[in-house]
UniProtKB/TrEMBL annotation, chain A:
Name of the protein in its database record: Uncharacterized protein
Any Gene Ontology CC annotation: membrane
Highest taxon above the source species: Bacteria
Organism field: Paenibacillus oryzae
PANTHER family named among the record's database cross-references: LEUCINE ZIPPER PROTEIN 4, SPORE GERMINATION PROTEIN
Automatic annotation (TrEMBL), chain B:
Keyword Membrane: yes
GO cellular component: membrane
Species whose genome carries this gene: Paenibacillus oryzae
Stated name of the protein: Uncharacterized protein
Example of a GO biological process term: spore germination
Similarity-based family: Belongs to the GerABKC lipoprotein family.
Length: 470, 397
């Protein structure tokens, strides 16, 4: 455990005197008006005065009584029976330890305090991750507790070279942040670089791992995610074994994995848990639909407003018939539909589950049925928007799918004003951006550009796990 | 200072973007603003070119029927507009003046040229159709015995439009299937001739509206040096198609000498191969016909399970082919002296040097050319039945 420091109270470097009354009073003045602090003053069996200080919500009071207070008070020369103990020498250290959920014991005649790890398990137990569900594969997900998350990883990586380093971040929250990696697989420079970036990051509070992600990525104003946020330990482990690192943050189930590439964002861990042919087919479908989720409405708008000769005749006639009564240009129609679809989606996500389904039913009725019957939106446009929606749901990483959700709109505007030229323009700009983007030094488009033939196999097809071990 | 620079560059970028995007908007063409032309017709009367466009009416066909207007035509999804001019371009210009939406020719998949217009030469039309940006060069070209606009005016009860029925007929291989580009190439080729399917209008069913009917293919229009010269009707047209390698979907009756009744053979494959030869300065052409077919009708009393009988039928079939080919050759060589079957192309490919030297008097060579017709036909199948069916008192055998 690294050195304890931070702004955990109005503390100074005052050392512990060895007189529990004085030290206790000093700590009491630090924790003035902290109703959750317990100061228990008592006498041990050998007539020494002692004080035990802990935070009532974070510590297991029953265990403190049984394992610390009872042996001291009842047995002659008795000592607490706690496995994990540590000594603190200054009041600052002591107060920080209390805030971290340790129980502090100050004894008469001892110029140090002892802290006992008797924290209570608060928060939930391991559950199936809500954002990344799977048909086949491990069903445990990270929780809000850093220790148990680390344990989930350790459970899968029973090797000593799986290393983890913890620091605290956030001036107010003092959140524990753990950097974990597998020594020997990851390049040491990368670890150094991450540690450098983490140490440089000055941040007031860390409530979710995204605030750290934003602080340490290479290009924070890119719409594309440069770190993979996942709450599945098996995903993290497979990434660790590919030489990546993970950042676990206390208080959130979402861990951050980097460096990542665009192609890895489009690969689901489930690809490796299924028959290889099916995985390859599904993977390709995902690539196609990812592009569709970005370009399909724009393509429709461009072709119907600028390049009618490109549509097969029969299809054009159907579209013409469907569009005849529509009062809006195709671009406006597409924007209306896409915006309302996004609104519907956002509403469905934020609402409680029970109401969420109602919203989706109402939305489907209004957007689908009523809008076409009223002649406001044409039926082909509904199909396009629905397909785009489905396509964006096919992307396994939420953070990757929201970037296309956003980019769709400017591309649509370009398509509506410049036609296919506009789409090509958008694609060129996107490719320029993507090829200049790096995630912790790794080119975002690798292994496609720059090409590395060996790694391309896992992009076009799917690698087989046993072929990796030489 | 720095933020000011960013602000300026942002403003500059935004104005650039607006300029770029808004100028693009002006070229926008919503589908609702287009008059989609499905077929083009070219007529010629009173020294003027008449251009006809078949335009798609994008009304929902469902809503038409729900209003109960049964008086409307069976499909009622197309209309025609005609304009005339001294040139086809002028006619097009005038035609646009008659239509409220911008005419869009990008989906015109059928061009119908009346034989009357063909007599004036195809050059002007071909140049226009291949030069005007919107026309498709793989549009099918037909001729019409009557006026082209009458063919386009039809409202086919079966298909979406008469353009669609013409296109489908071409795809089925009824008559010759010639695209605009092929037509131009064939006229530009050394032979300088072309054949086009000729369309007539079948009379409407009794009780139906006059327009509720279908065009049908009857005969072949022959073009020499870009000018219409003659219409070949059956049976000569069959020979013309045979020699042009365009005979598809055909059932042919075969009669045997001294046999009552006939066989009908459906051809599954007909291929004609031209083999030019120049021996001692004598130009000759070998025509080899390969065909496979199955018997679909047998009104004779003979059993086709008998191989001798089968080979007799095959022989008669080949003779019929030869007869048809000779008729067609007679028409092309002697009557029209038009190189319809592109012998010239074959000779140029065969020996370009000699061809170049004799290019001047090609027509004389052509008129007197010996053509040897050979063939190989096979009956692959005698249909579902072996022995003749429907003969009284035969079941007991």
């Amino acid at each position: 455990m690294s050195k304890r420091q931070g702004a955990g109270g109005s503390s100074d470097g005052t050392v512990i005197t060895g007189q529990p009354e004085i030290d206790g009073a000093r700590l009491q003045s630090i924790f003035l008006d902290c109703s959750d602090m317990v100061f228990h003053t008592f006498q041990t069996n050998s007539r020494l005065s002692a004080v035990c200080i802990f935070c009532v919500g974070l510590c297991d009071a029953e265990r403190i009584e049984r394992q610390v207070l009872k042996p001291l008070a009842e047995t002659e020369g008795g000592s607490p029976t706690v496995s994990s103990t540590q000594l603190v020498y200054t009041l600052q250290e002591a107060s920080q330890a209390i805030l971290d959920g340790f129980a502090l014991l100050l004894m008469e005649g001892e110029s140090n305090g002892t802290i006992y790890a008797l924290s209570k398990n608060i928060g939930r137990t391991t559950e199936e991750p809500a954002a990344e569900s799977t048909v086949r594969g491990p069903r445990d997900g990270f929780t809000e507790s850093l220790e148990s998350n680390l344990a989930l990883l350790r459970m899968r990586l029973k090797i000593a070279s799986f290393k983890s380093k913890t620091i605290t971040m956030g001036t107010y929250t003092n959140t524990k942040v753990t950097l974990a990696f597998v020594e020997g697989l990851i390049s040491p420079e990368l670890v150094q670089e991450v540690e450098r970036r983490l140490s440089r990051l000055k941040i007031d509070y860390v409530l979710e791992s995204h605030s750290i992600e934003e602080g340490i990525v290479d290009e924070r104003f890119s719409p594309f995610p440069q770190m993979l946020a996942t709450e599945r330990p098996d995903v993290v482990v497979s990434n660790l074994l590919e030489g990546r690192f993970v950042i676990l943050v206390d208080g959130t189930p979402f861990s951050l994995v980097a460096p990542i590439t665009l192609s890895s964002m489009l690969q689901s861990p489930e690809d490796y848990y299924q028959n290889i042919y099916i995985s390859i087919a599904i993977r390709w479908m995902r690539y196609i639909f990812y592009i569709m989720s970005l370009l399909l409405p724009s393509f429709y708008v461009a072709i119907t407003t600028f390049h009618q000769e490109m549509i097969p005749t029969v299809l054009l006639l159907s579209i013409a018939r469907a569009r005849e009564e529509i009062p809006f240009p195709a671009l406006v129609e597409a924007l209306i539909m896409e915006v309302s679809f996004e609104a519907l989606r956002e509403a469905g996500v934020r609402l409680p589950k029970q109401i969420g389904s109602a919203v989706s039913i109402v939305g489907a009725l209004i957007i689908g049925q009523a809008a076409t019957t009223a002649g406001i939106v044409s039926a082909p446009m509904i199909i396009i928007v629905a397909l785009t929606g489905i396509a964006s749901f096919m992307v396994p990483r939420y953070s990757a799918s929201i970037s296309t959700r956003l980019l769709r709109f400017p591309i649509m505007l370009l398509a509506g004003t410049l036609g296919l030229t506009g789409i090509i323009l958008a694609i060129i700009l996107l490719v320029i951006h993507l090829s200049s983007l790096r995630s912790f030094g790794t080119p975002y488009l690798s292994p496609i550009a720059p090409t590395s033939a060996g790694k391309l196999k896992d992009v076009w097809w799917r690698s087989i796990p046993w072929s990796k071990s030489r | 200072m720095k933020t000011k620079g960013i602000k300026y560059s942002l403003a500059f970028f935004l104005s650039l973007l607006c300029g770029l995007l808004l100028s693009g908007c002006w070229d926008r063409n919503e589908i609702n603003d287009l008059a989609i032309v499905l077929a083009t017709g070219i007529d010629y009367s009173h020294q003027k070119v008449e251009l006809t466009a078949q335009i798609f009416i994008p009304r929902k066909s469902g809503s038409v029927s729900s209003t109960g207007s049964s008086e409307s035509s069976p499909s009622g999804v197309t209309m025609i507009r005609t304009a005339e001019g001294s040139t086809i371009a002028e006619a097009l210009n005038r035609l646009q003046r008659k239509v409220s939406r911008e005419m869009f020719w990008g989906h015109c998949e059928v061009v119908v040229i009346s034989e009357q217009a063909g007599k004036q030469g195809l050059r002007e039309y071909l140049d226009f159709l291949l030069r005007y940006p919107q026309f498709r060069e793989h549009a099918y070209v037909f001729t019409s015995g009557g006026e082209a606009k009458e063919v386009l005016a039809l409202l086919d009860p079966l298909e979406r439009s008469s353009a669609e029925s013409l296109r489908e007929m071409a795809n089925l291989g009824l008559g010759s299937r010639v695209t605009l580009l092929e037509l131009a190439q064939s006229i530009a080729s050394p032979s300088g001739s072309a054949i086009l399917s000729r369309m007539l209008i079948s009379p409407a069913d009794p009780g139906q509206k006059k327009l509720a009917t279908t065009p049908y293919a009857k005969g072949i229009s022959l073009f020499k040096d870009g000018y219409y010269v003659k219409t070949a009707l059956e049976p000569v047209s069959v020979g013309v198609l045979l020699l042009s390698n365009e005979l598809n979907n055909f059932i042919m009756p075969i009669e045997l000498p001294q046999v009552k009744g006939a066989f009908s053979i459906r051809m599954n494959k007909v291929k004609t191969k031209l083999t030019p030869s120049i021996v001692n300065g004598t130009w000759g052409m070998g025509v080899h016909i390969e065909s496979e077919g199955e018997v679909v009708l047998n009104t004779t009393n003979y059993d086709l399970a008998n191989p001798v009988m089968l080979s007799k039928v095959e022989e008669a079939w080949l003779n019929r082919f030869k007869e048809l080919a000779e008729q067609a050759l007679q028409l092309a060589q002697k009557d029209l002296s038009a190189d319809i079957y592109k012998f010239a192309d074959q000779f140029r490919r065969y020996n370009a040097g000699i061809w170049k030297k004799n290019q001047e008097n090609w027509l004389t060579i052509y008129r007197n050319m010996e053509v040897e017709i050979t063939g190989n036909v096979i009956i692959t199948d005698t249909g579902k039945s072996i022995e003749p069916q429907g003969i009284p008192h035969q079941a007991s055998n």
